[in-house]
Amino acid sequence: MDPIALKAWRKAERERLIAARVAVAPATLDSWRRRMDITLERSFPGLARCRLAFCWPIKGEYDARHLARTLRSRGALTALPVVVKPKSPLIFREWHPGVEMVAGALDIPYPVASAEVVP
């Protein structure tokens, strides 16, 4: 497949997969999320002693906020990515409910003033 055809295929495939994910019933998404949370907790038992960086869910993606809440209650520090400028590395700022958020790239919220916690 030539590069132009590959790019077109990838774009179409991405759109198809996002549409399929968005079409999943909320109860089904929640069931999948619960199973993923359990698997992550069992697979990585030390997470509650760590800094956990995760992404805000969009378009039916896995919602790690539930797992983050559980781990925070056990001592973990949670953080969200921040796009400082295009084509530069992300930084991660501390997040928990109540932290001031603003809409960033793709309208994804990020912490506006909390401490940078993940180098």
Descriptive report:
The mean pLDDT is 93. Helices cover 39% and strands 18% of the residues. It contains three helices and six strands. The protein is globular, with a radius of gyration of 17 Å. The N and C termini lie far apart (39 Å). The protein has helices at 3-22, 26-43, 65-73; strands at residues 51-53, 77-82, 91-94, 101-103, 109-111, 116-118. The strands form two sheets. A four-stranded mixed sheet has the order 1-2-3-6. Helix 3 (65-73) links the parallel strand 1 and strand 2 (77-82). It is α+β, with helices and mostly antiparallel strands and 119 residues long.
Distance between the termini: 39 Å
Topology as a string of helices (H) and strands (E)? HHEHEEEEE
- Structural class assignment: alpha+beta
Q: Counting H and I runs of at least 4 residues, what is the number of helices?
A: 3
Low-confidence spans: pLDDT under 50, at least 5 residues?
none
Task: Give the averaged pLDDT, no decimals.
Answer: 93
Provide a short characterization of the protein structure:
The protein has 119 residues and is α+β, with helices and mostly antiparallel strands.
What structural keywords apply?
single chain; 119 residues; alpha+beta; 4-stranded mixed beta sheet; two-stranded antiparallel ribbon; 3 helices; 6 strands; globular
Describe the secondary structure blueprint for this structure.
Elements: H1 3-22, H2 26-43, E1 51-53, H3 65-73, E2 77-82, E3 91-94, E4 101-103, E5 109-111, E6 116-118
Parallel strand pairs: 1-2
Antiparallel strand pairs: 2-3, 3-6, 4-5
